[in-house]
Amino acid sequence: MEYGYIIAGFIVGLLVGLTGVGGGSLMTPILMFFFSIKPAVAVGTDLLYASITKTAGIFAHGKLGNIDWRIVKLLSAGSIPASLATIIFLRNINIDSTEAIATIKFSLGIALIFTSIAVLLRTKLMTLLAEGEWIQPKYVAPLTVILGIILGGLVTLTSVGAGALGVTTLIILYPHKKLTTIVGTDIAHAVPLTLVAGLGHASLGTINYELLGVLLIGSIPGIWIGSHLSARVTEKWIRIALSAILIYVGLKLVLA
Fold first, then answer.
1. Distance of alpha carbon 184 from alpha carbon 64, whole angstroms
2. How many CB atoms lie within 10 A of CB 89?
3. How many Cβ atoms from other residues are within 10 Å of residue 16's Cβ?
4. Contact assessment for residue 69 and residue 188, using Cβ atoms and an 8 Å cutoff
5. Residues 6+ apart with CB under 8 A from 251
6. DSSP per-residue string spanning 103-132
């Protein structure tokens, strides 16, 4: 079984390296469907997994000047309190109950469907928004905080949203920012968010540390290889395939 976890970590890491998407979107469903891990444990373990794997991204993007720390602060002002509030909510319910499991699965399914749409439309959205300013500047900062609140709750409950949904919405809010800056900023925000959410899940006892270590054994080389292959592979078809998988899994969770 440990070899299966290593392979799963490698595949997810490879996709993250190739497309920048797929961490929480794929790892949590894989743990639930293929390894029968409880939803809450799959989410909690994946959150710490994401925090660790994306930490390296902060240093890489930071050195290249690809992080807008003002946006990170605005997002965090909404996401961190929302994450803590979600942990408190989870603490006050029976997280292993049928109702809680159904809620997590349904929320995860909805998040995956929106993520798949975001993955598919990102390039077209960037082209469309390049034509002008769609949102008045005075609304950008409060909308960024609201985005943080949504991501904080969604990521803590499902482990999904910080990547594709965060990047896509930031492209809408900041159409004149370079994509590298948007991605770097999103990663910089995702690390503290997933860390806070992961530690919150640790306090709930919903993290499998042995599983976390085995997943990292596979994912770290997967991300490295994927990053180096990204320039040689047609990303368009990978994104289409990834979106199809996310929609299928999302619908399966919502309709279950």
1. 9
2. 12
3. 26
4. yes
5. 109, 113
6. HHHHHHHHHHHHHHHHHHHHHHHHHHHTTS
Tracing tokens 């392979």 back to the chain, one arrives at 7
**Closest C-alpha among 107, 173, 97 to residue 139:** 173
Nearest to 41 by CA among 151, 216, 159, 215: 159
> Structure pTM?
0.85
Q: What are phi and psi of 178, to 5 degrees?
A: -65, 150
The domain of 49 spans 2-255
Beta-carbon-side half-sphere exposure of residue 212 (alpha carbons within 13 Å): 18
**What's the number of domains the chain is made of?**
1
**Interval 33-92: pLDDT, tens:** 889 999 999 999 999 888 887 777 677 767 778 889 999 999 999 999 999 999 999 999
146 burial type by CB count under 10 A (0-12 exposed, 13-18 middle, 19+ buried): middle
